[in-house]
Design brief:
The chain is an all-beta fold. Helices cover 0% and strands 52% of the residues. A hairpin with an 8-residue loop joins strand 9 and strand 10.
């Protein structure tokens, strides 16, 4: 059974930083595509960043230059380093994983709340 557990969320002032972590179990982490999504109140869930097994990354335009996704395969963990946070980054952040041949995320964590005060 695949399980994902996010941690590291909290309340920070605008301009601050946070590092989210997502620990996984029950899957072949090293080959899976890992991603962070977020969902703000009243909005649809959106992709924030994605990292492939070889280390290639993708970021949504709104976080480029501020967020960094990384993975530690021996620890089965993916991270999202967030800097220069803005109030519009406030959302519940979710970790997801999928196998390389899948199109959509197959498993999700329960999410961690990030709140950026102005």
């Amino acid at each position: 059974q695949v399980q994902l557990a996010e941690s590291g969320g909290g309340l920070v002032p605008a301009g601050g930083s946070l590092r989210l972590s997502c620990a996984t179990s029950g899957s072949i982490f090293s080959i899976n595509v890992m991603a962070w999504y977020r969902q703000a109140p009243g909005k649809q869930r959106e992709l924030v960043a994605r990292i492939y097994s070889g280390g290639t990354t993708y970021y949504v335009d709104s976080v480029k230059g501020r967020f960094t996704i990384s993975r530690d395969n021996p620890k089965n963990t993916v991270y999202l380093q967030m800097t220069s946070l803005k109030p519009e980054d406030t959302a519940v952040y979710y970790c997801s994983t999928r196998r390389p041949g899948s199109v959509d995320p197959e498993y999700w964590g329960k999410g961690t709340q990030v709140t950026v005060s102005s």
